[in-house]
Write a structure and sequence with these properties.
Length: about 425
């Protein structure tokens, strides 16, 4: 994956590059994260780099403020090694407390004060960094909080491990931080979670969004610009160019009908019979993009006519999906004027579902008389008389059902 990412970056294949970043991001672990981070930095993979940094460690932070009221009395009444403890507070799934020693944690530190952070969760071990701050409660201007901090330390409740300020330096006048005989200590704790837990979370949250494939747009542009075209189709007196390699991989279209001719004679010109130029262009657009071209410039009747011709071409070249798409559009646009013509087309080209829709439309009690007055119906009687049998059978069945329920309702009224 790393080598493929490098190749994708070299050849400016942005989507492929994102795909490989996504795979690497989902498979981070302790062994490979550093190598992946270096790769991300070298090849400007900003999203992978961000994901990598998030995966290194998972932390949780919290802050607690401990206010000691009646400071002078407590200092006078507590000897060295004695402390005042804050309420416990939770950070990162552990309980903590601040211990303040007014006269020092031991005889050696007396009379200077000491401050410690202590892990209170029983039988627990936690890795954390911390910062202890004496806040400015006085009215003295310009006095900044007094801060003491340390990097990650391992706290162990069993061993009563504690970390903090052993001795507040003599040069610091603690009285400057006392107001109304109270002093305030703030403690910020950052708990570093277990590495295995961090990896699991990282792998779940390291999704890198990859945009949808745009190869269809690129192929459509290739057809429009004609760049690299190597075959010309003569269609109704017009020349339409395309690319043999694209046509050859769209079975069974040109493989069955045209590739054989081109292979035999190494032809660069192929004549297409019985297809209009605009229909053949629409056909090629589908071959390249698997979608129909925009027909917003056509009126509704012209669009329906285009769909009929395209359906015939799709049937000729065995393009089943295109044929179904044309049937779907024709079925959605049936009306009294065009349904007979569409039924004849469906019958001729074995469009079973489209034929069923047309038969049901014509056989409806409201539509039959109107359809019979159209030119398309006259053509249908002449060219596809057997298709009318289905219509008449459907209509006869519908009429029998109608009159059955009508008579049932009437009889019910008379017997009351």
């Amino acid at each position: 994956m790393r080598n493929l990412l490098v190749a994708a970056d070299k050849y400016a294949m942005d989507r492929l590059k994102l795909l490989y970043q996504n795979i690497l991001g989902k498979n981070l672990d302790v062994e490979n994260v550093a190598t992946t981070l270096a790769l991300a930095d070298q090849h400007d993979c900003s999203k992978l780099k961000q994901t990598t940094s998030r995966c290194k460690t998972e932390t949780e932070e919290g802050t607690h403020i401990f206010e000691i009221v009646g400071y002078s009395l407590k200092k006078a009444g507590i000897g060295a090694g004695k402390f005042i403890r804050s309420a416990t507070f939770a950070v990162g799934g552990y309980d903590w407390a601040i211990c303040f020693y007014p006269n020092g944690a031991s005889q050696n530190s007396r009379p200077h004060s000491s401050i410690y952070l202590t892990l209170m969760t029983k039988n627990a071990t936690a890795k954390a960094s911390y910062e202890l701050r004496l806040l400015n409660n006085s009215s003295s201007s310009g006095l900044m909080p007094l801060s003491f901090s340390e990097g990650p330390r391992v706290f162990d409740h069993v061993d009563a491990t504690r970390f903090g300020v052993v001795v507040i330096p003599e040069k610091i006048d603690l009285a400057m931080y006392i107001k109304d005989d109270s002093i305030t200590i703030e403690c910020a704790v950052k708990v570093i979670k277990d590495q295995s837990s961090s990896e699991t979370v990282a792998m779940m949250n390291s999704e890198i969004e990859v945009p949808p494939s745009d190869i269809v747009q690129h192929l459509g542009t290739l057809l429009e610009t004609k760049q690299g075209a190597d075959v010309t189709f003569c269609v109704g007196g017009e020349d339409i160019v395309a690319h043999k390699i694209v046509l050859a991989v769209r079975p069974p279209f040109f493989q069955a009908q045209l590739c054989g001719e081109m292979k035999e004679a190494m032809m660069s010109r192929v004549t297409i019979e019985d297809v209009q130029p605009n229909v053949f262009r629409a056909l090629l657009h589908f071959v390249y993009t698997d979608s129909l071209p925009d027909m917003g410039n056509l009126y509704d009747d012209d669009k329906i006519e285009m769909m009929r011709h395209l359906l015939v071409a799709a049937d000729k070249y065995a393009m089943d999906r295109l044929k179904l798409m044309c049937q779907n559009i024709l079925a959605k646009n049936l009306d009294v004027e065009n349904v007979a013509t569409t039924l004849a087309l469906a019958d001729q080209y074995n469009c079973i579902k489209l034929k069923q829709v047309c038969v049901e439309f014509i056989a409806s009690l409201d539509a039959m008389d109107a359809v019979m007055g159209t030119r398309g119906y006259a053509d249908l009687k002449r060219t596809c008389p057997y298709a009318l049998i289905d219509v008449l059978e459907k209509r006869n069945k519908a009429r029998k059902t109608f009159f059955f329920w009508k008579n049932t309702i009437i009889m019910g009224l008379y017997t009351r």
